Amino acid sequence: MIRICDWRRRHMAEKFELPYYQQVNADLVYYYSGSERCAPGHSYGPAVRHYYLIHYVRSGHGIFRASGKEHTLRAGQIFLITPGEVTYYQADLDDPWHYSWVAFDGMEAASCLRQVDLTTDSPVMTLTRHVNILSSFDMLEDAKKLSGGRDLRLTGGVYIFLSCLLEAAAGELAHSESKPRELYVKAAIEFMEKNFSRRMSIEELASYIGLNRSYLCAIFKEVTQQSPQQYLIRYRMERACELLENVSLSVGDISRSVGYDDPLVFSKMFTKLKGLSPRDYRKQAGRT
C-alpha cells in the first residue's frame, strides 16, 4: 500500500491525522483527514497536490494563495486545493486559525465540487449556514477507529461532507437575491438530465430548485431561449437517438427509457422534432 504521510505540520497545539490512499478507480476516494490548531505564522507551500484537499476554518484567520491571487480567510470559510495547482497558506500572526481538512479524489470529485461552485478559479466558499460540516469531520475521525468496514465508512464520510456543502450552497442560493440566474438554470438542467428517464413535471422541477414555477420558466427561457419543457423534450430525443443505434431495443423499450410510458406519444414527439419516425431514423442511421 502506498501511504501519503504529511509531516509538514510541526508547530501546533493540537493535531490528529491518519493518511490513507487508494487508486482512483471509483467515483470518490478518501485519502486522509484531520484537524489542527496552528501556531502563529504556521505555513505550508508553495507546493502541489495530486488530489483535492478542502480546509474548513473553524476559528481564527489566515491567508491562502492560488492562481496568483491571495485570499484572506476567517472562520466559516472553506478553501479548495485542486490537483496540480501551486498553493500556499499561512496562519495569521495574531489570530492563527484552527481548521479541519479532508483530502479525496475520484472520477466524480470535480463534478461534485462544481455543483457548489468550488473550482480552481473559485477556490473559496463562505458558509453562513454551517449545516453539519463539523459533524461530518467528527464522523471521519470515528471511522478511522473502526477495524471492520473502515474503508467504506471513510468513503461514505466524503459523500456526507460533500452533501453538507451542497446543502449549504442550496441554502445560500435560496436566501440570496444577488445569485446569478444562471445558477438556477444550471441546477434545473442538471436535475432534468439526471431524471429524464422517468416521468417528471415542471412543478416537481421548480419545487426541487426552490422557485416559483412561473419564475423558473421565465429565467430559464431568458437564459436558454427555450422553456424547461422544450429543453427536456429535446434532451430526451437526443438520448433516444443514441438508443436507436442499439437494434436490440424496440421503440417501446426506448420510449420508456426516455420517460414516455406511451410509445405512440413518444413516436409523435420524435417525428415532430427529427422529421422522421423512430423506425425511419434507425434505418437511415444504419445506412450511414
TrEMBL record:
Entry-linked Pfam families: AraC_binding, HTH_18
GO molecular function, one term: DNA-binding transcription factor activity
Residue ranges constituting the HTH araC/xylS-type domain according to the UniProt record: 186-284
rRNA-binding keyword on record: no
InterPro entries: AraC-bd, Homeodomain-like_sf, HTH-like, HTH_AraC, HTH_AraC-typ_CS
Keywords carried by this UniProt record: DNA-binding, Transcription, Transcription regulation
Highest taxon, organism lineage: Bacteria
Name of this protein: AraC family transcriptional regulator
